[in-house]
Write a structure and sequence with these properties.
- The structure is a single chain.
- This protein has a seven-stranded parallel sheet, sandwiched between helices.
- By secondary structure, the chain is α/β, with parallel strands linked by helices.
- The chain has helices spanning 23-34, 46-55, 70-84, 107-135, 156-176, 194-199, 203-210, 221-232; strands at residues 14-18, 38-43, 61-64, 89-92, 138-143, 181-188, 243-246.
- The protein is globular.
- The protein is 45% helix and 15% strand.
- β5 (138-143), α5 (156-176) and β6 form a beta-alpha-beta unit.
- It has eight helices and seven strands; from the N terminus they run βαβαβαβαβαβαααβ.
């Protein structure tokens, strides 16, 4: 494992992370906690979330929340702010890349996928931006996906929602920039979370996937967390409205 940077500006910073209980989100929670940040996260997997809190010796805060329920999101963020103070960094990480055939998509499923993968990002920003304005600035990091760039089939509602993340990111960067609030997108390639390994990462698919990458190594969640740390820190003070690819050169 390489030696990674410490960011003094993250010491004591309040960071909210959506979907922080497992996978990439859990890696982010752990990484921010290691930087001395005050970390709060939301998730609807309470058992896994509580295990993560225990693994970090209770140094992070968790609130249960199904992000498809916007009132619940607002309540959870308000509780985290009461415990940790207003967030000056937000990581909109939560999403689910469930596969689905185009023939089977109903209007109800389409709407549910957008609620799962896009809608909550806007309302999470809406919830934290007033506090960032009062603080004199902040950083918002939205997790996109390179799936739509790669023209991945078999999940049209997911790729449509994830492509919209980039439009939301760029327009929000202009919307909030006068308040020194930066908004960027981090764009993962195929990241080897436990979920991916269990459901889809067969040896044959991995071999075929690596043929499309410039780098010969699989992407581990830690590398997404490292990019997010940079974008939340003062080291990236003049970075906004941009896509930061962590995809091994797949595009």
């Amino acid at each position: 494992m390489p030696e990674f940077a410490l960011y003094p500006s993250l010491q004591g910073k309040t960071v909210f992370i959506t979907g922080g209980a497992s996978g990439i989100g859990a890696e982010m929670v752990t990484a921010f906690a290691a930087q001395g940040a005050k970390v709060g996260f939301v998730d609807f997997d309470a058992d896994t979330a509580e295990a993560l809190v225990a693994a970090t010796d209770g140094t992070v805060a968790f609130e249960f929340c199904d992000l498809r329920d916007i009132d619940a999101l607002r309540t959870a963020f308000a509780k985290l702010a009461d415990r940790l103070g207003p967030a000056t960094a937000l990581v909109n990480n939560a999403a689910r890349d469930d596969r689905h055939g185009w023939q089977d998509v109903t209007p109800e499923y389409w709407d549910e996928r957008f609620s799962t993968n896009l809608r909550h990002m806007f309302f999470a920003m809406q919830a934290v931006v007033p506090g960032m304005i009062e603080a004199g600035g902040g950083s918002i990091i939205n997790l996109g996906s390179n799936s739509w760039w790669e023209k991945v089939p078999g999940m049209p509602a997911y790729t449509a929602a994830k492509s919209a993340v980039h439009g939301l990111t760029r327009s929000s960067a202009k919307e909030f920039g006068a308040h020194r609030i930066r908004v960027n997108a981090v764009v993962p390639g195929w990241v080897m979370t436990e979920r991916q390994k269990e459901l889809w990462a067969t040896p044959e698919k991995l071999e075929d996937h690596l043929k499309g990458q410039c780098l010969p190594d699989l992407i581990e969640p830690v590398y997404l967390a490292r990019m997010v740390l940079f974008l939340a820190s003062d080291d990236s003070a003049m970075c906004t409205a941009s896509n930061f690819m962590v995809d091994g050169g797949s595009i």
